[in-house]
From TrEMBL, chain A:
Family the entry assigns: Belongs to the CPA3 antiporters (TC 2.A.63) subunit C family.
GO cellular component: plasma membrane
Membrane topology, as annotated: Multi-pass membrane protein
Keyword Disulfide bond part of the UniProt annotation: no
Swiss-Prot/TrEMBL keywords: Cell membrane, Membrane, Transmembrane, Transmembrane helix
Transmembrane segments: 6-21, 28-47, 67-92
Compartment list: Cell membrane
Domain of life of the source: Bacteria
Source organism of the structure: Ureibacillus xyleni
Name the record gives this protein: Multisubunit sodium/proton antiporter MrpC subunit
Automatic annotation (TrEMBL), chain C:
Ranges that cross the membrane: 6-30, 42-63, 69-91
GO cellular component: membrane
Keywords linked to the UniProt accession: Antiport, Membrane, Transmembrane, Transmembrane helix, Transport
Protein name (Swiss-Prot/TrEMBL): Multisubunit sodium/proton antiporter MrpG subunit
Phylogenetic lineage: Bacteria, Bacillati, Bacillota, Bacilli, Bacillales
UniProtKB/TrEMBL annotation, chain E:
Protein name stated in the entry: Multisubunit sodium/proton antiporter MrpA subunit
Origin species: Ureibacillus xyleni
Domain MrpA C-terminal/MbhE: 714-790
MrpA C-terminal/MbhD domain mapped to chain residues: 637-700
Classification lineage: Bacteria, Bacillati, Bacillota, Bacilli, Bacillales
Stretches assigned to the NADH-Ubiquinone oxidoreductase (complex I) chain 5 N-terminal domain: 65-112
Residues in the signal sequence: none
Keyword Membrane: yes
Coiled-coil ranges per UniProt: none
UniProtKB/TrEMBL annotation, chain F:
Keyword Hydrolase: no
Protein source organism: Ureibacillus xyleni
GO cellular component: plasma membrane
Keyword hit for Transport: yes
Keywords, in A-Z order: Antiport, Cell membrane, Ion transport, Membrane, Transmembrane, Transmembrane helix, Transport
InterPro entries to which the protein is assigned, alphabetical: MrpF/PhaF-like
GO function terms (MF aspect): sodium:proton antiporter activity
Superkingdom, natural source: Bacteria
Positions of transmembrane segments: 6-22, 34-54, 60-82
Protein's membrane topology: Multi-pass membrane protein
Principal subcellular localisation of the protein: membrane
Name of the featured protein: Multisubunit sodium/proton antiporter MrpF subunit
Length: 112, 140, 123, 492, 802, 94
């Protein structure tokens, strides 16, 4: 399972990277969202998968699955949510003021 | 032409109640079961957002006249404040304590200071979520 | 077989039934010709699938662990209440955004009422 | 009491939040934020003294012993940077009061600045690698807002690029963290160091280390500095100064910490790589600075050169070089802040950013011009100003380690720094003045105050280098002997 | 006594006071006040002469940065004394001169402030024993020289000259600093005296030669040696007193000082000998050759200064051979070259100072320095003419002036060296006297030009219109004092030799036991020997060439303008600026997509490179948990959804698919026993999707990517490589099981933290700090969104772009 | 045996999701996609219920309820978006 997930992560990373390399804002932002999905899975996989029971005490007492990565992912999810929210707003403000959502047209330096 | 939303609104009135209850439940169950301040806050926040979706900005604002930025700020203050509190007791920063307290009506209850911290988290999440959605929606 | 055992089996079979219904409904979503008919597959049979399945799970937990899960009941009720509303809303939205009806759907009686004065769809 | 260590982070956060409630009383916001930063600076100084006399102190949050809980570790290196950063922020705030404008001030400008410095201080102090990520994010989120604050066309455009690149950088950080946790199964930096040393930094760990190198390079602007020139030239001057002073430095701090504490063992690969990257960075920075025709471009590429130069110190890795790197780091924080404050003021005074179009500023603003000249000399490394001690120590280290190519690149870069900054001086400050004495805009008093204070600091760091040496030596001692740090965390 | 420190500090203190107090003083007085500084210092320094002549040295030690061995050590010996006397002596005269030269309208406080700064720095250079402190003052002289050259900064030429001089001299200084650091790493000390005493250990090391070359670079740039001399003519944009002071008498001699100071260290090396001698001679020739073609009197003097500096430099090079040979009866004779160098150093300061002041007077009174517009000034400016005549003749090496003496000694030294057969002098050494002689001829010619073209011939009518008259007495005092010295030294050379030069020789040859032997008796007449014949030849040929000037001047046109060093310098600079600009613009083109591809490429190359280089790949399925069929389907669902996003053309579809991904990931969390994560992921995913939808009101729909196939392919390759890199490293990491995780500790959560949900106790207690900051992050984001939306730039705000 | 049947049921749900994914990808109209996504969510509810039986834990029951809520909110949001282009209205808008 771990290897399968790591390979899946690799595929997601490829897709995300390809989207990040696009010209259109929305594609890039969706790309970053996919990248963050991928890395959350990756962190989880790094702690070992299906190696124990749900990390809740009192249900059964032996061999919990690694809880630390879960806590880390939670934090990471929140942060990536915060970033994505900000990013979306920034993107549409940029679109409204600059009039384009194409990064090739948002260069600004050499076209002057 | 105004679109008729009667069905939606009727259902939502009930649903929001369920959602808010669930949010509070999740918030309190967090320490021993899945849930906690963050998820509780998110669920409560999405309940409020559902209201905004179903009704319109002004109507909801009349019912809930909070400045959600300040709600969020208050949440952060609560979370950090509970952490600072431990300085007063000369304990390491962020120290949490728990204990069993005998409260007159409710009987013996397990209370932890984590709850204050989590309440801060939840308030921040609600405040931030609604602030974001409202700010965008209010934009021209 | 004890009662408990029987009921557990019943629960599991309910769940299996749910699975089968859900595949059927999914197939319906693929095969049916337009969004309005697909919505029928989605909101009716899918909801049935999930209700059956959740009921199975509820029964299972009840008899296997002796645990009456309020959350599951709430979930069942919730899905039961909301699924029709969701189906309704999405169909209305589809119609208002002028998703065409499948060929051979018969006469569209709503059209002259709703879009009489408009030439362009607003989406 | 160890709880003191958290104050540089928590005080700005709490006051920042309180200021949100005081949104419309600008005067109060100013007073409170200034008091906060002064308090933080004083605290940091006290802490620095304590650390220097009593050794590394740490604060285990909630009382959980390492490696299980999160902890803040104050060693001299971190405290020096916290102190410098806090002082510089105080001064940038002072500058902001008189220049930033009411509109931005009511839009939570001061809270964002305070959150930024909280994130920066947290990054310096934390002893937990995941917490470092979180502190980075606190800093980055504030910086995202600060780049875009003002809402101008260019600002939004550049900030979007800045944010996106940093989002990808944060993603890489998480990937690196995942691999790190997957291998050493711990997050406490001292504990990581101990475990890495236990297996002698195996090849796979080196790969993880290299991943961290890239992540922090993105933050530090080492080789992967593409986000830097654009985003540093658009925000208000006070923000630019803070960015130039602090943001890249946090990356540099993380690099130094990572490769002296956690992954110091495979220097053949990691330090060579850092050296190569630093060399290319300097060359690219020099080319950019040479190409620059406007103050912003020249300034931002000078930031890049500075980054490369400091990291030569790390790449070389001898005691002298690390000492030099620390000195240069402190110098660079102060000097770059001043440089960007001045640049911002120049643009404000003339309404131009192309150096050809402003001329003769020194006629109307003599003191202003001379302060620029001091920065110019300091950045070139002319003694006895601040850049000098760090530069010679890095040079000494490079000679000891026989890395002559880095030595040559590093010292040759000083010439380009001089040349590019001199061009601004000659074109913009000297020459016929374009604005008559009567038409000139006055420089606000607060701005002058911050210029003078920073200039005095620059002179002090150079002339009074000895007074810093106790702390720097203590810092270097920790950096060169990771066991000091590890023992303080895991055996205390 | 700490007089030495006071000597260095006094100019700085006064310089610092000037900007503060100048408003309270009358304009004229400021000069007189400043004059007191060098004058008193000069007098103070003269009191040292007797003691130093006895062989005493004075050194003091002050701590600066003892932690890094940086200390302020003053050291006053004969060599320092010569230079410090020059600095203060010529300084006094120049300030006296400038009081009358500069008009009251100039910003005098700046001028004197810089001048004092320079003076202090220069004294610091010659008094420092510590290399880094020496370097400090060295750079300060460059800086103050920059400020003085740019004194009239509204002139474009001034700024250009200042920039050139600063760039070149500071670059040299930096090279020198590296050399110093190398010396330090070899000797573990920054003290020149200690290095000299450890010289045996140092000279064996591999860094010795690089250090030598780098330090020489510093000296050559400062002393305007070929090919770095190009800054000096441009520096003539400075006011004339500055040119007289810095750019002929003192600052440019700092390089000479350095070479003299380091002769005991490096003197024994062949490279040193040839570099110093060769460059010196080349400079001597090139300077004098180019001086002839100049039409601006100041430029002419500048080139003559270059040439004279070359002369002194080459003498020091010749003298260094004595260090190589070591102390013996035979080697003593070669030390005379160094003696001649010091002697000429003083002589040059006297006559060149006078000549500069003369040019200043001409410029001041006539209004031009162009020799094509000058002529016949002798009757109008008789005193000035006297200065010019004596100065020029001395420079040309004619008796009865001091230049003659040193010139003869120079010839003697060049002749003597040819008799040696070390360092392959026996083969190409013959060139030394030849070049020296040819250069002297040109020197003679330009000396004649100075006097002839300015003061003889017919007076130009437009000069007469201005009704010029002789300079005020104040301006004449200084040149006349100098002229007096020119003659005086010729008459009593040995006074100078005994009291001043002899102790200095001890500084150059500290290992030689007796300074008496090092001091030859200078006499004007030494019989009809080779040197004298050479001088006679110079005179004859020089006069001939002067009168045939028009015939052979076209030679100069043989060298095309493009190939001159000056234009070479300009070309190099503009070329590097242009190349950097085009290169930088090419990759820093503001296109985010490009930046991303660079970042990803570096990522792949570095990470995968290191990964394979270290051979870290290891993989086995042994530790993996099982895969159920439904999981496999889910994996495929995720993959299809992800790939479908690549091809979708509608923004909503891509966001929906992203939602599918998010839900699937949440389901993975369920399968992997992470209930809290699943909950959070579900909610966050929904909210994110909603946010996307809300923002779509303001965003455009997707447009097809109008990129070329090539770009698409390369993006595809990059992204596949990135994915592959993450995968292979990930697989290796999964396989890496050497450590026990720390999280088993948290399984005791209920006892430790009173909670049954381990993840939640980690978030709320063990790692509560993360959570706290995470909340802050969220808050910042919310506040930021609000700010970004509400704060819109007003119309009036000008966008200043880079 | 029970477990096998549960796994089969789970696989069936996954198959259904995979089929629905086709609808999400192919469309053709927005409502089609929204419906399909909603159905995916509903199917996931069942899947989670089965997984909790398999894992013998009650930890995921909250997730069921939440998923139900979110599927509902999401569908409402979509339908409003499709219908009006705006999700949160102001009073003046229609």
């Amino acid at each position: 399972m771990e290897s399968l997930i790591v390979i899946l992560v690799g595929i997601l990373v490829s897709v995300g990277t390809y989207l990040v390399l696009s010209r259109h804002m929305i594609r890039v932002i969706v790309g970053t969202a996919i990248l963050s999905h991928a890395v959350h899975l990756l962190i989880l996989a790094m702690g070992g998968l299906k190696k124990g029971v749900v990390p809740l005490l009192g249900q059964s007492e032996d061999g919990f699955t690694d809880a630390l990565p879960q806590a880390l992912i939670l934090t990471a999810i929140v942060i990536s949510f915060a970033t994505t929210a900000f990013l979306l707003v920034l993107a549409y403000r940029t679109y409204k003021t600059n009039g384009t959502a194409d990064f090739r047209e948002l260069r600004g330096i050499s076209d002057e | 032409m105004k679109i008729n939303d009667v069905i939606l609104r009727t259902v939502v009135k009930g649903v929001v109640f369920i959602i808010l209850t669930l949010g509070v439940y999740l918030f309190f169950s967090g320490h021993n079961a899945p849930g906690g301040g963050f998820i509780g806050g998110l669920v409560l926040g999405s309940g409020i957002v559902l209201l905004y979706i179903t009704y319109d900005l002004e109507t909801v604002h009349k019912k809930m006249p909070f400045d959600f930025k300040k709600v969020a700020a208050f949440g952060v203050l609560l979370a950090t404040g509970s952490a600072i509190g431990s300085l007063y007791f000369n304990a390491p920063f962020l120290s949490q304590t728990d204990g069993y307290f005998n409260i007159p009506i409710l009987g013996e209850k397990h209370l932890t200071t984590v709850t204050i911290f989590e309440a801060g988290v939840a308030l921040t999440v609600i405040g931030t979520l609604v602030t974001i959605i409202l700010s965008i929606s209010e934009d021209e | 077989m004890s009662v408990k055992e029987t009921l557990e089996w019943a629960a599991i079979l309910l769940i299996l039934l749910g699975g089968i219904i859900s595949v059927i409904s999914a197939l319906g979503l693929i095969r049916l010709p337009d969004v309005y008919t697909r919505s029928h597959a989605a909101s009716k049979s899918s909801t049935l699938a999930v209700l059956v399945c959740l009921t199975g799970a509820f029964i299972y937990f009840w008899f296997h662990d002796g645990y009456v899960s309020i959350r599951l009941i709430l979930g069942i009720i919730f899905v039961f209440i909301t699924a029709p509303v969701a189906g309704h809303l999405i169909c209305r939205a589809a119609y208002r955004s002028r998703v065409p009806l499948a060929e051979g759907s018969g006469e569209d009686e709503l059209k002259p009422l709703l879009f009489a004065n408009e030439d362009k769809p607003d989406l | 009491m160890n709880n003191l260590i958290v104050l540089p982070l928590i005080i700005p956060i709490i006051t920042g939040v309180i200021l949100v409630f005081l949104r419309h009383s600008i005067m109060l916001q100013r007073v409170i934020s200034t008091i906060t930063m002064i308090t933080v600076s004083i605290m940091s100084f006290i802490l620095l003294e304590i650390v220097e006399s009593e050794g590394i102190i740490r604060l285990d949050f909630s009382g959980w012993l390492p490696p299980f809980g999160i902890l803040f570790v104050a060693d001299s290196f971190a405290m020096l940077l916290v102190l410098t950063a806090s002082i510089v922020t105080t001064i940038c705030l002072l500058y902001a009061f008189s220049t930033i404008g009411k509109q931005i001030e009511t839009m939570f400008f001061y809270p964002f600045i305070l959150f930024l410095i909280a994130g920066v201080n947290g990054s310096f102090l934390t002893g937990d690698i995941f917490n470092l990520f979180v502190c980075f994010e606190v800093m980055l989120l504030s910086s995202y807002v600060l780049v875009a604050i003002g809402g101008k066309k260019v600002q939004l455009r550049e900030s979007l690029k800045y944010v996106l690149i940093n989002v990808v950088a944060s993603w890489m950080f998480l990937v690196a963290l995942a691999f790190l946790y997957g291998t050493v199964k711990t997050l406490n930096m001292a504990h990581i160091a101990q475990r890495v040393a236990e297996v002698g930094q195996e090849p796979l760990l080196t790969t993880v280390a290299v991943l961290f190198l890239l992540v922090f390079s993105l933050k530090a602007g080492l080789l992967l500095f593409f986000w830097l020139p654009g985003s540093y030239s658009v925000p208000p001057a006070a923000v630019q100064a803070l960015f130039a002073a602090l943001l890249t430095k946090v990356g540099i701090y993380a690099l130094i910490r990572t490769f002296t504490l956690m992954f110091p063992l495979n220097q053949d690969i990691t330090h060579t790589l850092i050296g190569v990257m630093a060399g290319i960075t300097i060359i690219a920075g020099c080319m950019g600075a040479l190409a620059g025709r406007d103050v912003y471009t020249i300034g931002t590429y000078n930031v890049i050169i500075g980054v490369g130069f400091i990291l030569i110190g790390l790449a070389v890795g001898t005691e002298a070089a690390i000492t030099g790197a620390i000195y240069y780091l402190i110098h660079d924080i102060v000097a770059k802040a001043l440089l960007f404050l001045i640049i911002g003021m120049m643009v404000y005074l003339t309404g131009e950013s192309v150096i050809k179009n402003m001329s003769g500023l020194i006629r109307n603003y003599p003191l202003f011009g001379w302060i620029y000249f001091i920065v110019l000399l300091a950045l070139t490394g002319v003694p006895p100003l601040s850049g000098f001690v760090g530069k010679i120590l890095i040079g000494q280290g490079a000679i000891e380690a026989e890395s002559y190519i880095l030595l040559a690149i590093g010292f040759a870069s000083s010439i380009i720094v001089l040349y590019s900054l001199l061009r601004i001086f000659l074109a913009s400050f000297f020459g016929e003045t374009t604005i008559s004495f009567e038409d000139r805009k006055p420089i606000p008093k607060g701005a002058y105050g911050s210029f003078i204070f920073l200039a005095v600091t620059i002179v002090f760091i150079g002339v009074g280098a000895e007074s810093l040496s106790v702390y720097v030596k203590d810092a270097v001692n920790t950096l060169m002997n990771p066991s000091v740090y590890i023992d303080a965390i895991l055996k205390g | 006594m700490t007089f030495e420190l006071a000597i260095i500090l006094l100019p700085f203190i006064v310089a610092a006071c000037i900007p503060i107090f100048y408003r309270r003083l009358p304009k004229k007085a400021i000069g007189w006040v400043v004059l007191m500084v060098p004058l008193s210092l000069f007098l103070l320094l003269t009191t040292y002469i007797p003691r130093i002549a006895k062989g005493q040295t004075f050194s003091n030690y002050y701590e600066w940065i003892p932690s890094f061995n940086i200390n302020f050590t003053t050291y006053l010996d004969g060599l320092s004394l010569i230079f410090s006397l020059l600095i203060t002596g010529v300084g006094s005269l120049v300030i006296l001169y400038s009081i009358f030269y500069l008009s009251k309208k100039e910003s005098l406080h700046h001028f004197y402030c810089y001048l004092l700064l320079f003076m202090g720095a220069m004294l610091g250079v010659v008094f420092s024993d510590h290399l880094l402190v020496l370097y400090t003052f060295w750079e300060l002289t460059s800086v103050s020289s920059f400020l003085l050259i740019a004194f009239w900064h509204h002139r474009k030429a001034s700024r250009a000259g200042a920039r050139k001089s600063m760039t070149i001299t500071v670059s040299g200084g930096i090279a020198m600093l590296v050399g110093f650091l190398m010396l330090y790493s070899m000797s573990e000390t920054f003290s020149i005296r200690e290095i000299i005493s450890n010289i045996d250990v140092i000279s064996e090391q591999s860094l010795f030669i690089p250090a030598l070359v780098l330090i020489l670079l510093g000296a050559f740039t400062k002393s305007a040696q070929f090919p770095f001399h190009i800054w000096l003519p441009d520096a003539m944009e400075a006011p004339t007193p500055v040119s007289a002071y810095l750019h002929s008498a003192t600052m440019v001699k700092a390089g000479i000082y350095l070479v003299a100071r380091f002769t005991p260290i490096f003197g024994g090396e062949m490279i040193w000998f040839w570099a110093v001698t060769g460059v010196g001679l080349l400079t001597l020739f090139w300077g004098s050759f180019n001086a002839v073609k100049q039409v601006d009197l100041k430029a002419l003097l500048a080139f003559s200064t270059v040439s004279q500096l070359g002369l002194i430099m080459s003498l020091l090079g010749l003298g260094s051979i004595a260090v190589y040979l070591g102390y013996s009866k035979d080697s003593i004779i070669y030390t005379q070259a160094a003696f001649a160098a010091l002697f000429h150093l003083i002589n040059h300061s006297t006559f060149k100072g006078a000549l500069f002041m003369m040019v200043g007077i001409v410029d001041h009174e006539i209004g031009t320095r162009d020799i094509r517009r000058l002529g016949g000034l002798m009757p109008i400016l008789p005193f000035t003419f006297t200065v010019a005549l004596i100065g020029s003749l001395s420079m040309a090496g004619m008796p009865p002036f001091n230049g003659f003496l040193s010139k003869e000694m120079f010839f003697a030294a060049t002749l003597k060296i040819t008799q040696l057969d070390v360092f392959s002098i026996d083969t190409i050494g013959v060139l030394i006297p030849v070049v020296a002689w040819v250069a002297s001829i040109f020197t003679f010619v330009y000396c004649l030009i100075i006097v002839g073209k300015t003061f003889f011939g017919k007076i130009k009518p437009d000069i007469l219109e201005k009704n010029p008259h002789e300079a005020p007495i104040g301006m004449l005092i200084s040149p006349f004092i100098l002229i007096g010295l020119v003659v005086g030294i010729f008459i009593f050379p040995n006074l100078l030799g005994h009291y001043i030069l002899q102790p200095a020789m001890a500084g150059i040859y500290p290992t030689f036991p007796s300074t008496e032997e090092l001091t030859p008796h200078i006499s004007a007449w030494h019989g009809f020997n080779m040197e004298l014949w050479m001088t006679i030849g110079v005179v004859i040929l020089g006069i001939t060439l002067y009168f045939l000037l028009k015939r052979w001047k076209p030679i100069y046109r043989w060298i095309p303008q493009r190939l001159t060093l000056n234009s070479l310098y300009e070309t190099v600079i503009s070329f590097s600026e242009n190349v950097s600009e085009s290169l930088t613009k090419r990759y820093m083109n503001g296109n985010l997509t490009h930046y991303f591809s660079y970042i990803y490429m570096v990522f792949v190359i570095v990470v995968a490179g290191v990964f394979f280089l270290t051979n870290s790949f290891e993989w086995s399925l042994v530790n993996n948990s099982s895969v159920e069929s439904f999981e496999l389907i889910l994996v495929f669902v995720v993959i299809f959804a992800a790939v479908a996003i690549l091809f979708t053309t509608s923004r909503i579809a891509s966001v929906l698919l992203n939602g599918v991904l998010g839900y699937s990931v949440a389901f993975f969390f369920v399968i992997f026993r992470a209930p809290d994560l699943a909950l959070t992921q579900l909610v966050v995913e929904s909210v994110t999707t909603a946010l996307f939808l809300i923002c779509f009101k303001f965003l455009p729909d997707l447009t097809p990517e109008r990129t070329s196939k090539r770009v698409k392919v390369s993006n595809g390759v990059i992204s596949i490589l990135v994915g592959a890199t993450v995968t292979i490293v990930g697989l290796a990491v999964v396989n890496y099981e050497k450590f026990e995780t720390i999280s088993t500790y948290f399984e005791d959560a209920y006892n430790l933290a009173g909670g049954k949900n381990i993840v939640n106790t980690i978030l709320g207690d063990f790692r509560a700090f993360d959570t706290m900051l995470e909340v802050v992050v969220l808050f910042i984001a919310g506040l930021g969104v609000y700010t970004i939306i509400k704060l819109k730039a007003k119309k009036g705000d000008a966008d200043i772009e880079n | 045996m029970k477990e096998t049947i549960l796994l089969i049921a789970l696989t069936l749900f996954m198959v259904a999701i995979a089929i629905l994914l086709y609808r999400v990808i192919m469309g053709p109209s927005m409502p089609d996609r929204a419906i399909a996504l909603d159905t995916i969510g509903v199917n996931l509810i069942s899947a989670i219920a089965i997984v909790s039986i398999l894992l013998k834990t009650k930890a995921f029951l909250e997730a069921i309820l939440i998923l139900g809520i979110l599927a509902f909110i999401g569908t409402i949001a979509f339908s409003k978006y499709i219908e009006r282009g705006v999700i949160v209205e102001r009073k003046g808008d229609s």
